[in-house]
Amino acid sequence: MIRVKIKRDNGQIKSFQLKGHAESGPVGHDLVCAAVSGITFGAVNAVLELCNVPLEIDQAGSEGGFLKVTIEDMQPSPDLEKACLLFEGMLISLQTVEHDYSKHISIIDK
């Protein structure tokens, strides 16, 4: 199961962590894993490309199954607002996957 933890600061997403494997299909053909990877890496790439917000990105281990992204500077700015909006969109997409595949993904939003 993929476990997603969202941490907030003043209501805005400060960091998120993904841990585990969906195991909803054979390696290389796991649709839940592909969806979660596409959603999260797409959001991170969008923030890196469109927002001047420093991110700390940790992909511990070479076998995958772990990603932690933290916004390093939470000073109010238009770029921070854009980054937070992109991450909120990511969360909504992940919740859609969780709704349909709750045996393979669990989200905790604190």
UniProtKB/TrEMBL annotation:
One Pfam short name: Peptidase_Prp
Keywords associated with the record: Hydrolase, Protease, Ribosome biogenesis, Thiol protease
SUPFAM superfamilies: TM1457-like (SSF118010)
GO molecular function, one term: cysteine-type peptidase activity
First and last residue of the signal peptide: none
InterPro entries: Peptidase_Prp (IPR007422), Peptidase_Prp_sf (IPR036764)
Biological process terms in GO annotation: proteolysis; ribosome biogenesis
UniProt KW NADP keyword: no
PANTHER family in UniProt: HYPOTHETICAL RIBOSOME-ASSOCIATED PROTEIN, RIBOSOMAL-PROCESSING CYSTEINE PROTEASE PRP
Family: Belongs to the Prp family.
Protein name: Ribosomal processing cysteine protease Prp
Organism: Gracilibacillus halotolerans
